[in-house]
Amino acid sequence: MKILHIRKIALLVISLACYAHAGEAIREERVEHAGAAFRVVRLEPKRVQLVWKDGGGEPFRSFDRVQADRAAKGETVSFLMNAGIFEPGGIPSGLHIEEGRQLRPLNLADAPGNFFLKPNGVLILHHDARVTLTTSENWRHNPHGAPLWGIQSGPMLLIGGVRHPAFREKSGNLLHRNGVGLDQDGRLVFAMTGRREEVNLWNFAGLFLKLGCKDALFLDGDISAMAVNPESPAGKNHFGAIFIVSE
To answer: Which of 5, 55, 175, 208 is the most buried (most CB within 10 A)?
Structure first.
């Protein structure tokens, strides 16, 4: 009986510790790089969810609709970021896996635009909380593990600590941008240019190097948005898939 009692106490302590971690406030960093300011959030992968459609099969499209949906379920959304390039109607341009189900296939077509600037890449969270961040071609040939969720976007910003071969240091293609990397501690690093800040892809990739990432993926630009610990509806820009933390 004493052993059983001790085990119950141990399980309770573990549960409380997990609950405390899950409810931790999300901290946003401000990082300066290459003359621009960036907003950065580092998250344990298991806290991050990926959403595209609501219970009725309609794409959420906007942050405020996700917040309303989760509030109706008794949850609070503490982080939101648009999760990749999409087609008209909010349809993800490439691979989309949600709750273990593949809803959109890998897209290896050749076409204009950032998404198709090869190599592009995939970000996968597995059921055991491992993360795969690799090129789409690598994933095509080795789709290992059991994905919980996954996205495809492009281009890759960093591949094994090296910038995408198409990037140029002096490029004048300056835009508002957002992306995600994987740091040396296994955390997902979400980054976005600050308000009224613009950067080229060479320097955006360099930011992730500075943040301790060897692999990083471009998500989108121009309309990109991020909300951290929002106390009100967080905006109505229209997106495809959306990263969230909801607890």
So the answer is: 208
